[in-house]
């Protein structure tokens, strides 16, 4: 912990830099164990380090520099303080909501029940075609109980610290433990947890997978003492057949998030259009039938396109100066049935029958009933 151990002092650094190094080293060595206060202080200290001190640490204490930089990156790029997505913002998907409640919310409400054989699920995988609401479901469950939400993308883990991804994963789980209850959401988890042992697999990727598996195993033992301080991994995948079996076993509950049914499509239409005027000639049940086979994101695109129709008609053939004079009431005219019909013709669905069949076959073999 002594600054003298790093050799002669560089004249470009002042005494405060050496003092910070000594203090950080002492704090780092003294924060062993599970002391949440120590973790919290260390977290605050990482924010207090200015750029000059950080440059100093990069030269004289590279390990400490790396730790502070990783911690900052996790806070900046991964932790979402308040996702602000309510269950009511997500149309239908009743089965998926029920499973997420069982895995995340109920253990916080009834911690004494979720013990021993009833210990909470530590890994949940949501699979389904793109645009079905998997990410919104993950954010919604975190919002419900004000849970710390870690939004992890594979690019963040692999590009920020190339070759050091396993250290970043270790720190990610340490942060999740400090801020528990936590949800670690890994989008496109198939690209991170693909089958191991492939000839093209990079050594960095192999080490990263091993580190992640190790920490996923550790979640089970960590939750035994206090279910209310649990950490749950939520994964989302559009290609679940690419996920390695070792990861599938640890993602204990596997939920199929399908395309919305007729009721779900109508509910989504109402949600999406709640802040705009809709003409009385629009029958949302009929529109819902026309959107059979569309994903949730496809339906939102149709609604947005239909909402622009009145503006397009109002400005057609006009100059910019003439457009400025158009009353807002004309631009915001209610969406009509014809607007929807035209939007549906323009916006094609993005999920094929072959895609759906592949997901259903995978779900038949690996999925969990809810």
From TrEMBL:
InterPro entries: AAA+_ATPase, AAA_lid_3, ATPase_AAA_core, ATPase_AAA_CS, MT-severing_AAA_ATPase, P-loop_NTPase. One of its GO terms (molecular function) is ATP hydrolysis activity. GO terms for biological process: microtubule severing. Signal peptide: none annotated. It comes from the Eukaryota. GO terms for cellular component: microtubule cytoskeleton. It holds the Pfam family AAA_lid_3. The keyword Ribonucleoprotein does not apply. Residues 120-261 form the AAA+ ATPase domain. Keywords: ATP-binding, Nucleotide-binding. Residues 27-49 are annotated as: Disordered. Gene3D superfamilies: 1.10.8.60, P-loop containing nucleotide triphosphate hydrolases. Belongs to the AAA ATPase family. This is Katanin p60 ATPase-containing subunit A1. It comes from Cacopsylla melanoneura. The lineage of its organism: Eukaryota, Metazoa, Ecdysozoa, Arthropoda, Hexapoda.
């Amino acid at each position: 912990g002594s600054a003298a151990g790093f050799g002669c002092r560089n004249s470009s650094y002042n005494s405060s830099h050496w003092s910070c190094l000594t203090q950080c080293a002492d704090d780092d060595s003294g924060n062993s164990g599970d002391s949440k206060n120590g973790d919290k202080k260390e977290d605050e200290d990482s924010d207090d380090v200015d750029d000059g001190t950080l440059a100093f640490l990069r030269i004289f204490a590279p390990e400490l520099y790396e730790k502070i930089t990783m911690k900052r990156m996790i806070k900046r790029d991964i932790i979402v303080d308040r996702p602000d997505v309510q269950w009511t913002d997500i149309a239908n998907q009743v089965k998926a909501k029920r499973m997420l409640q069982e895995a995340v919310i109920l253990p916080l409400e009834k911690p004494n029940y979720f013990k021993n054989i009833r210990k909470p699920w530590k890994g949940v995988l949501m699979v389904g075609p793109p645009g079905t609401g998997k990410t919104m479901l993950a954010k919604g469950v975190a919002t419900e109980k004000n849970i710390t939400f870690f939004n992890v993308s594979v690019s963040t883990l692999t590009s920020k610290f190339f070759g050091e991804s396993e250290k970043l994963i270790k720190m990610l789980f340490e942060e999740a433990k400090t801020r528990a209850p936590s949800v670690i959401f890994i989008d496109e988890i198939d690209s991170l947890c693909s089958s191991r042992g492939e000839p093209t697999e990079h050594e960095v990727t192999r080490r990263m997978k091993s580190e992640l598996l190790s920490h996923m195993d550790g979640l089970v033992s960590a939750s035994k003492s206090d279910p209310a301080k649990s950490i749950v991994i939520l994964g989302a995948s559009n290609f679940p057949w690419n996920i390695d079996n070792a990861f599938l076993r640890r993602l204990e509950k596997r939920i199929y998030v399908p395309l919305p049914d007729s009721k779900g499509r109508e509910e989504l239409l109402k949600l999406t259009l709640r802040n705009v005027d809709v003409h009385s000639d629009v029958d949302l049940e009929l529109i819902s039938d026309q959107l059979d086979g569309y994903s949730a994101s496809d339906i939102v695109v149709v609604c947005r396109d239909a909402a622009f129709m009145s503006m397009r008609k109002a400005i057609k053939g006009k100059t910019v100066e003439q457009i400025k004079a158009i009353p807002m009431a004309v631009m915001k005219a209610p969406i009509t049935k014809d607007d929807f019909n035209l939007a549906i013709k323009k916006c094609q669905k993005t999920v094929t029958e072959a895609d759906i069949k592949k997901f259903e076959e995978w779900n038949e073999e690996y999925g969990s009933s809810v």
